[in-house]
Inverse folding.
């Protein structure tokens, strides 16, 4: 019997040893920190070093708490801005547990931490949005001047293509929310690293109005283009008429000048020759009259000539007159 | 492993030799399991991060590696060399990376944005990234990929929020890509999540659906404008060069006329001067000759010629030939053409 009891007892002892060891040893991952509690009460400083650790078995309990930067993804919430626009805001934040003991005492687990974050950040976001016009949470840099769209150039005085001015901007407001929430969260052992707006969109009730405005802006641009086109075209038609009249009148003028000058020159040439002496004048008169006969008398004419005329004066008598 | 080897014979030596074979089988099995769990491979595109009792010990390159078995060493395989991407506002089906895109019902919220002129735009984009520090990726931030999605959405809206709708939709695309890449790189670096952003690419960027027609209308109007100008220019070009040509033609014709006129004048004058020279030598004869020559030329052309004796005035009434009206006798002298 004892021979049989010995290995049995040994086996039990080994098993107990293993159980003891298993309860005493625990591992801490790189991503975790551990708070050892004894009967539910935290003892000692939290264990932040990763690796194998030991504790008093059975009595002490291991509570792991994340050491990493954690996400808080806010609920999408509808809220009004200062300029009474309803928008839906979706924020996110980064946080981590810097004082695990505090955290553990106040919140125990992440679920309650998340709901606390939601409460605090949600209400701070709401406050911040309500204090600012929409544009303040849309734009970031005050100085930025938009690149004008050259094809849309020329809408003077319009609000199209203009960035609305801001005094603070998105980043500052995010920082304000963070600053306000930071202290409230600090007492839970939580460090809030940052809060950022993830999505800001128009509420469906506002969006129709926004779209209508966008449509009317575009129509404004479109009608400007059309009227510009018509204007330009009219200008070109005007140019055409002006150039045509110019060209034609210029040509007329030149033609008249050339012809006039030629006529004058010709007249002068004729006058010089014909008017040089009484003899030339009389010859000219004579020759011109003869030319006139050539032109006037044709086959349809009937000539009645008398023998008294110059031509036939020899018909009656040889000697003439 | 060596500890187990020692422990097994320990159990064996005390009694029950009947079960030796059983124990041997169990022992071998345990050894096999231990051996199996002490071997691991890291695929080519990845790195293995080895944790002993949860503590980071080393990273190992791709290949076959050994580790302490039975949960003492654990290995996380991180695909460091794989180009990963996240899509926003749309999703490519069949993605292996579960963070590549969000659910279909999220897309429309994901891409709706408010621009700096308080208009709305739909922006779809892609972020290309890689895990460049596996230890940070695993230990510093929980769920780094989800954080990246949030950060990317936030940055894109920040960049779009500083631009007009026209910049977002047309002319500012590249600038947006560049700036959001830079900002996202800064932000992920500050989060220390071990992720390196390679690229931000804009995909479809559109005005909201209900507004798209009016944006098209602007394009149309732009084309109409061009067309109106082109038509007017065409009309101009059709008419004006021709008018120029015609003007040139008229001027040339006038120049021709001038040349002709002057040459004729010179010719006429030359002939006249020559005649005058002859005439001044013998005026009477020349005069007569000219007269007669003209008559000789003119008279044959006339079909009807009546020659009257000066004294035979009574003939006149008989001269009603062919119904032609005759000149009254008083004009006789003129008709005679005497000089």
């Amino acid at each position: 019997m004892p021979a049989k009891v010995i290995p049995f007892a040994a086996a039990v002892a080994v098993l107990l040893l293993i159980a003891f060891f298993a309860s005493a040893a625990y591992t801490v991952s790189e991503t975790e920190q551990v708070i050892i509690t004894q009967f539910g009460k935290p003892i000692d400083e939290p264990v932040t070093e990763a690796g194998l650790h030991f504790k008093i078995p059975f009595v002490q309990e291991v509570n792991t708490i994340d050491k990493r930067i954690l996400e808080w993804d806010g609920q999408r919430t509808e809220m009004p801005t200062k300029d009474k626009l309803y928008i839906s805001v979706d924020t996110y934040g980064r946080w981590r547990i810097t004082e695990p003991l505090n955290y553990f005492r106040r919140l125990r687990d992440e679920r309650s931490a998340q709901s606390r974050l939601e409460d605090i950040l949600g209400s701070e976001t709401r406050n911040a949005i309500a204090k600012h016009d929409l544009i303040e949470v849309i734009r970031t840099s005050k100085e930025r001047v938009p690149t004008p769209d050259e094809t849309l150039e020329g809408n003077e005085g319009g609000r199209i293509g203009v960035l609305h001015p801001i005094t603070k901007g998105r980043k500052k407001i995010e920082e304000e929310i963070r600053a306000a929430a930071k202290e409230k969260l600090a007492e839970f052992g939580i460090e809030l690293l940052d809060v950022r707006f993830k999505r800001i969109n128009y509420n469906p009730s506002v969006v129709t109005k926004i779209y209508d405005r966008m449509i009317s802006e575009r129509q404004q641009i479109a009608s400007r283009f059309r009227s510009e086109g018509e204007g330009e075209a009219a200008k070109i038609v005007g140019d055409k008429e002006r150039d045509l009249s110019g060209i034609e009148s210029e040509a007329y003028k030149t033609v008249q000048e050339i012809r006039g000058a030629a006529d004058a020159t010709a007249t002068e040439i004729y006058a010089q020759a014909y008017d040089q002496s009484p003899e030339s004048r009389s010859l000219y008169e004579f020759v011109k009259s003869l030319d006139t006969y050539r032109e006037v008398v044709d086959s349809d004419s009937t000539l009645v000539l008398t023998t008294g005329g110059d031509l036939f004066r020899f018909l009656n008598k040889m000697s003439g007159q | 492993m060596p500890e187990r080897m020692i422990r097994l014979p320990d159990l064996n030596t005390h009694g029950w030799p009947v079960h030796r074979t059983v124990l041997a089988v169990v022992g071998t099995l345990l050894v096999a399991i231990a051996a199996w769990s002490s071997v691991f491979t890291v695929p080519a595109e990845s790195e293995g991060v080895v944790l002993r009792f949860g503590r980071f010990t080393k990273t190992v390159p791709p290949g076959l590696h050994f580790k302490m078995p039975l949960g003492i060493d654990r290995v996380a395989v991180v695909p460091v060399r794989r180009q990963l991407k996240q899509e926003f506002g749309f999703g490519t089906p069949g993605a292996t990376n579960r963070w590549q895109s969000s659910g279909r019902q999220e897309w429309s919220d994901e891409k709706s944005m408010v621009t700096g002129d308080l208009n709305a735009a739909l922006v779809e984009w892609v972020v290309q990234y890689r895990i460049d520090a596996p230890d940070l990726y695993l230990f510093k931030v929980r769920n780094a990929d989800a954080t990246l999605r949030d950060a990317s959405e936030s940055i894109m809206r920040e960049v779009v929020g500083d631009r007009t709708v026209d910049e977002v939709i047309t002319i500012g695309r590249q600038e947006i890509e560049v700036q959001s890449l830079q900002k996202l790189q800064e932000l992920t670096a500050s989060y220390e999540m071990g992720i390196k952003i390679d690229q931000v690419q804009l995909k479809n960027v559109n005005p909201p659906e209900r507004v798209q027609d009016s944006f098209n209308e602007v394009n149309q109007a732009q084309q109409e404008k061009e067309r109106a100008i082109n038509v007017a220019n065409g009309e101009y070009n059709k008419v004006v060069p021709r008018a120029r040509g015609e003007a040139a033609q008229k001027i040339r014709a006038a120049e021709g006329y001038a040349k002709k006129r002057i040459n004729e004048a010179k010719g006429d004058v030359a002939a006249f001067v020559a005649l005058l020279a002859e005439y001044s030598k013998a005026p009477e004869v020349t005069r007569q000759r000219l007269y007669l020559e003209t008559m000789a030329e003119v008279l044959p052309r006339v079909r009807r010629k009546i020659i009257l004796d000066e004294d035979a005035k009574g003939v006149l009434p008989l001269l009603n030939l062919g119904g032609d009206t005759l000149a009254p006798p008083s004009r006789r002298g003129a008709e005679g053409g005497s000089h």
User: Anything to note?
Assistant: Chain B touches chain A through 130 residues (CB under 8 Å).
